[in-house]
Amino acid sequence: MSSWTQNYYHTVYGTKHRTPWISPELEERLHPFLGGIAKDMHCTPIAINGMAEHVHILLRFPSKIAISDLLSNLKSRSSKWIHQTFRHLGEFNWQEGYGGFTVSKPSVDAIEQYIRSQKEHHRSRSFVEEYLQMLRQTGYEGPDEAAFE
């Protein structure tokens, strides 16, 4: 019997202290760069979008890649690229942690649409409100403050 996996993952992470570093100019180049990192790691990026202080990524990944390695690469390589390409953003950093959510195949289209509509979605909800709602919907029961440490 051959092995086959179908792993979909939705991750969201913010800039350090939720500083709004991601300008439209940076965003236009950052999202494709993140997609390139994902492809380099043998993942298939499905949707990448966000706001000035956070990013969402939906991708399919092979079972041989640990999520922690994937996120470490996405964050460290993109941070290094930002520092080299946008020298005026020398203090840019991603937050230490991230939110990660497994996605079933039947839910991929809905999550993709959710990510693609971030600008519209955030007209009425902050990143903090959005993130806490995502955590609660997926079973998080810890204190709100712990989600942002």
Could you please describe the fold and organization of this structure?
This protein has 149 residues and is an alpha+beta fold. It has 5 helices and 4 strands. It has helices at residues 24-40, 67-85, 108-116, 118-121, 127-137, and strands spanning 7-14, 44-51, 54-61, 99-103. Strands 2-3-1-4 form a 4-stranded antiparallel β-sheet, with helices on both faces. A hairpin with a 2-residue loop joins strand 2 and strand 3. The longest helix has 19 residues, at 67-85. It is globular. The model has no long low-confidence stretch (mean pLDDT 91).
Q: Over the alpha carbons, how many angstroms does the gyration radius reach?
A: 15 Å
- What separation lies between the terminal Cα atoms? 44 Å
Q: How does the major sheet shape up?
A: 4 strands, antiparallel
Low-confidence stretches: none
Q: Strand order across the biggest sheet?
A: 2-3-1-4
- Overall form: globular
Number of helices: 5
Q: In percent, how much strand structure appears in the residues?
A: 15-25%
Strand runs, count? 4
H-E order: EHEEHEHHH
Helix content: 40-55%
Which oligomerization state do the chains in this entry correspond to?
single chain
Structural class: alpha+beta
- Could you report the average pLDDT, rounded to the nearest whole number? 91
